[in-house]
Specification:
The complex is a heterodimer. Chain A contains 6 helices and 11 strands. Chain A is α/β, with parallel strands linked by helices. Chain A has one domain: 3-Layer(aba) Sandwich (Rossmann fold), CATH 3.40.50. Chain B folds into 3 domains: about 100 residues, Fumarate Reductase Iron-sulfur Protein, Chain B, domain 2 (Orthogonal Bundle), CATH 1.10.1060; about 140 residues, Rossmann fold; about 130 residues, Rossmann fold (3-Layer(aba) Sandwich), CATH 3.40.50. Classes of the chains: A alpha/beta, B alpha/beta.
């Protein structure tokens, strides 16, 4: 069983988001890149499947600052092969373009199963999973929160709104958009990561031409504007209560 | 998989010769504030190791109840370093086995990624200095040489409540005309609590980062308001090759007491009680410096709690406890900080005085959750000194 996990690095929201001079993207010098949270779950699910049923896990990511840390941490968890796709990702990449860049690498790997995070906070033009599945001509199931493998098929738990879950059978090869792994991503001690850094290697691939066709373009990016501020009611308990009742009456609630 | 890890763990810990001298008196488990909630309190862990059944310990999560307060080590008649060799070693094995409570995991991952357990942007580490007059000198920016390197620390840099104490200490340093500078964005977590929480590799990684930053500048000593940073830099950093004289701020201010005393002219007419932080008191035997500072404040009366000095009760924040509040609450509705503020209130004091950045927020929360807001306030010694100026 060969499992590939194409992941994405996204701007870390711990940092302030600064819009660049063009007004259409973030200033790359201010961005700290972090592994997309759902991709962390996709890696965990791949490792869990490998631990249960054996196989080979390949984790792929974009060649941005922090990529090596992400890949070595994945290796410390149990990933067998690490691939870094080098390209011009700093000023943002559309999903249509990213799917096309990952495609030849994935075709060469020919995995039985592709796991990817169900979404990122950068998804403007769709999500990576369905775009990959379409290009590869294989099935896609998204919002998956549990996977078991048997006889060339995957049985997946798909989540629906309203707390509904469905169990589905998918023929392999397939792409799964991972919402959550069977168990949360594990902690890897830093000593293990440092050990792995000495023994693992990262394969670097050069990304092809960026082809954004079919996607959308950003006209203007802006910070959310603050609307009307809340009214703070001053006074003692009785005064506050009286004013509150007044407001509720004004609004037609009472 | 866990069983393999547990068996390896048994092999690893068997080699600890210290543990052979244990006489199974059980004092360590008896003195442990949370031992009653552990499946395997310290003396039982030692017994399991000696009977080669340590794998059973690794299958439980009770070592996460240890707050590394060092009461067990202090009380051991055979001088076994129980906190480190038994409890933190067991936590190391739990970390290797992947048995880490999620809230602790987040703090450890944050420490790896951002250099602080809070998960704050490392670019904001020195934001607290904005607007302070006179300006706080930063190594590499204003100067490369200073008498004192002030190691600020995580909570002192990022926690809004503790920042008040940090600004107070900056004021004292300026008033005392100390030649000092901070590391600014070069500083990362001291890592000592992560070490005691079983992540030794992470501690080394952080210590190396700080050590490299220390190496870039010239200074005579490190001063910190954080007993955990103080302990790490005094005892553990030298083992990694980073050896500098280091002082907790209470020792440093006592050294400057003659200079400080004439400035303390306002009366602070309050009855206070002082909480000995574990890593200042019990572990590093600094009991008098904080009390000397309090005695220098005019009008102030110090009353002691039953648990004091070597026998002090932990705030619950050490050894990873700072990041395990939910876990501990779920285990047994236990919050050591609540017991401690109860004890403080019963002395009749109106101020619980602390000297550690973990304690101000921990005890303030405990004052609120135990409904003692009208009765007790929590202040760092620094804040009382500033009030007296």
């Amino acid at each position: 069983m060969k499992i590939a996990v194409p992941t994405q690095l996204v701007p870390d929201l711990v940092e302030e988001l600064v819009i660049d001079a063009s007004g259409s993207y973030l200033d790359p010098s201010t961005v700290r890149w972090v592994l997309n949270e759902f991709d962390d779950y996709a890696i965990e699910q791949a490792i869990l499947l490998k631990e249960r049923q054996g196989g080979q896990v390949t984790v792929l990511t974009q060649g941005l600052e922090g990529a090596d840390d992400v890949l070595f941490a994945a290796a410390a968890k149990g990933a067998d092969r690490l691939i870094k796709l080098n390209g011009d990702f700093e000023s943002g990449v559309k999903m249509h373009a990213l799917a096309r860049l990952y495609l030849p690498v994935l075709q060469a790997l020919a995995p039985d199963l592709i796991l990817t995070g169900v979404q990122t906070h950068l998804n403007l033009d769709g999500t990576l999973g369905p775009l990959l599945a379409e290009s590869l001509g294989i099935p896609y199931v998204g919002y998956v929160s549990g996977v078991t493998l048997a006889d060339g098929k995957a049985t997946v738990l798909k989540e629906y709104p309203g707390g509904l879950k469905a169990e589905m059978e998918v023929n392999l090869p397939a792409v799964l958009g991972i919402q959550s792994s069977d168990t949360p991503p594990r902690y890897v001690p830093i000593s293990k990561i440092r050990q792995v850094m000495k023994t693992s290697k990262i394969d670097e691939e050069e990304a092809g031409e960026m082809d954004e066709s079919g996607s959308v373009s950003i006209a203007n990016l802006m910070q959310p504007e603050s609307g009307e501020k809340a009214e703070m009611i001053e006074g003692d308990v009785d005064q506050v209560a009286a004013r509150l009742v007044e407001i509720l009456k004004e609004q037609g609630v009472l | 998989m866990v069983d393999m890890v547990a068996l390896d763990a048994t092999d690893r810990i068997q080699d600890d010769l210290h543990l052979r001298s244990c006489i199974q008196c059980g004092d360590c488990s008896g003195v442990c504030p949370l031992g009653y909630l552990m499946d395997f309190p310290p003396s039982k862990i030692i017994a399991e190791i000696r009977s080669e059944t340590y794998a059973r310990v690794i299958r439980t999560d009770s070592a996460w109840m240890c707050i590394a307060c060092s009461a067990c080590t202090t009380v051991c008649p055979m001088q076994i370093p129980v906190t480190i060799n038994v409890m933190s070693r067991t936590k190391e094995e739990l970390v290797l086995a992947g048995n880490v409570p999620p809230e602790l995991q987040a703090a450890l991952e944050n420490s790896q990624r951002y250099g602080n357990p809070e998960g704050e942007s490392p670019r904001k580490r020195a934001d607290w200095i904005k607007g302070i007059e006179p300006a706080i000198p930063v190594f590499g920016r204003e100067k490369r040489t200073a008498d004192v390197l002030w190691f600020v620390g995580d909570y002192a840099s990022f926690h809004p409540r503790v920042q008040q104490v940090t600004r107070g200490f900056a004021r004292l340093l300026h008033l005392l005309k100390v030649d000092f500078a901070i590391l600014g964005l070069d500083e990362v977590s001291d890592g000592d609590s992560q070490r005691l929480a079983g992540e030794r590799g992470l501690f080394e990684y952080l210590a190396e980062k700080n050590g490299r930053a220390f190496g870039k500048y010239s200074f005579n000593r490190i001063v910190t308001t954080d007993p955990h940073a103080f302990n790490g830099m005094k005892t553990e950093y030298p083992k990694l090759g980073y050896s500098y004289p280091v002082q907790h701020y209470t020792e440093f201010l006592v050294e400057h007491l003659e200079q400080l005393k004439p400035m303390l002219c306002k009366e602070v007419k309050t009855r206070v009680t002082y909480h000995d932080p574990c890593y200042l008191g019990r572990v590093n035997k600094i009991y008098d410096a904080p009390r000397t500072l309090l005695a220098a404040i005019p009008g102030l009366t110090l009353v002691e709690m039953p648990h004091t000095r070597q026998n002090s009760l932990c705030c619950g924040g050490g050894g990873g406890g700072m990041w395990l509040d939910g876990f501990m609450w779920n285990k047994g509705h236990a919050r050591v900080s609540e017991w401690r503020v109860g004890e403080a209130a019963r002395t009749g004091a109106s101020v619980l005085v602390v000297a550690c950045p973990y304690e101000t927020p921990r005890f303030e929360d405990a004052v609120k959750t135990t409904g003692r807001v009208e009765q007790l306030v929590v202040k760092d010694i620094i804040e009382l000194l500033v009030e007296a100026i």
